[in-house]
Design brief:
Length: 371
């Protein structure tokens, strides 16, 4: 058998070569070839496909005729260091992880093997999610938390949630802290509300961004989907799922009206359900439209909670002080997404706890410059 999340990559040895290439073209990456018993045989990579398309009559060929059976694989017990050694030696991007029984357990990628390096170089997909999760994990670790939760509101097709799942898995491994991931969505696209200019009806309408639940669900590992209108599912979320303190929130609900229950959750929730600083991403704040949508919801939230809670910066300002994210070695500040914000919970019992990890003093260096 093969892992459910890899089904998009799987082709079988008797498949028509044209059908196999269509699947490859739709998803990219690599074609993993299995026999009729779903046991691993080999792969067809991008280089292989390029050769096949130029030298093969598709009317007379099936997958078994072109599969690369001498491809590189690793076993279930092999480590990240083994994968890094392979990638350092070979110009490939994907390594299938195969059990002793011939089952395809996982697909190990180059960016996974060199995650920390790629993070520092800003080369990972959805770096905004990576940065927030890293910052949230560092804060939680320094406060002594064993786990945190990350939530995406507005999953749609699922690209953001899958990126959050990927970054949570790798950062959890590096930081030694559990990161739980949850995704909230109606499942049927943008919901219906009474027409309100703050919802930007000239730009958004009911039903946009409908989810393909079955396609997304098979790609999720430990991530949990919460389906329904946010205002209906949020009130019971903490009781039903008992999540770790929420430290990261991505808001991609587009509408002012749909943003309100998310902010109400933080405003009225118990402090133990959150970390003292929540790293947040608001996807739909546009320059020149800060008077509408999600940003107005933020402004109203800040006005109601002055001295108690604050989400900042408002608008499209790039005022985050990234040097406070001690432990993140990332210097491409110009690449930070200005839609990342921080919700400060001043009333949180852990808010004033000292967690600085930068040097506590600065000894004299290069004294000759000053004499």
């Amino acid at each position: 058998m093969y892992a459910k999340k890899l089904s998009d990559f799987i082709v079988h040895e008797d498949d028509d070569i044209r059908d196999a290439y269509w699947r490859f073209s739709a998803r990219g990456g690599v074609s993993i070839v299995c026999n009729d018993d779903d046991k691993f045989i080999g792969v067809i990579g991008q280089t292989d496909w390029n050769k096949i398309l130029h030298a093969t009559n598709p009317d007379k060929v099936v997958v078994r005729d072109v599969v690369n059976k001498k491809c590189t694989t690793i076993g279930v017990e092999d480590t990240y260091s083994k994968a890094r050694d392979i990638y350092a030696d070979k110009a490939i991007e994907y390594i299938p992880v195969i059990s002793e029984e011939g089952d395809v357990i996982d697909l190990f990628t180059r960016q996974r093997a060199f995650y920390k390096k790629y993070f520092e170089e800003g080369k990972l997909p959805k770096m905004n999610y990576a940065i927030m999760l890293y910052a949230g994990a560092i804060q939680a670790k320094n406060l002594g938390y064993k786990a945190i939760s990350a939530i995406e509101f507005g999953v749609a097709g699922g690209n953001g949630l899958l990126a959050m799942q990927f970054h949570a898995r790798e950062i959890s491994r590096l930081m030694g802290i559990e990161i739980q991931v949850y995704g909230f969505d109606t499942g049927s696209g943008l919901p219906t509300y009474d027409v309100n200019y703050l919802d930007m009806p000239f730009h958004w309408k009911q039903g946009l961004f409908e989810m393909d639940f079955s396609d997304l669900e098979k790609k999720l590992e430990t991530t949990k989907l919460v389906i329904g209108k946010i205002e209906d599912t949020l009130p019971s979320f903490f009781d039903i799922y008992n999540p770790a303190p929420v430290g990261v929130i991505a808001v991609d609900v587009d509408l002012y009206t749909a943003t309100l229950p998310i902010l109400s959750m933080m405003e009225n929730g118990k402090t133990e359900c959150f970390t003292p600083r929540i790293y947040m991403y608001f996807d739909d704040i546009f320059s020149g439209y800060e008077c509408l949508g999600e940003n107005v919801a933020i402004k109203e939230f800040n006005e109601r909670n002055k001295g108690r809670m604050n989400i900042c910066p408002e608008g499209k300002n790039s005022g985050l002080s990234w040097e406070l994210f001690h432990g993140i070695n990332y210097h491409k500040q110009g690449q930070y997404d200005n839609n990342i914000k921080i919700c400060h919970m001043f009333h949180h019992p852990d808010y004033n706890k000292f967690i600085r990890t930068a040097p506590s003093n600065y000894p004299i260096r290069n004294y000759s410059r000053f004499v």
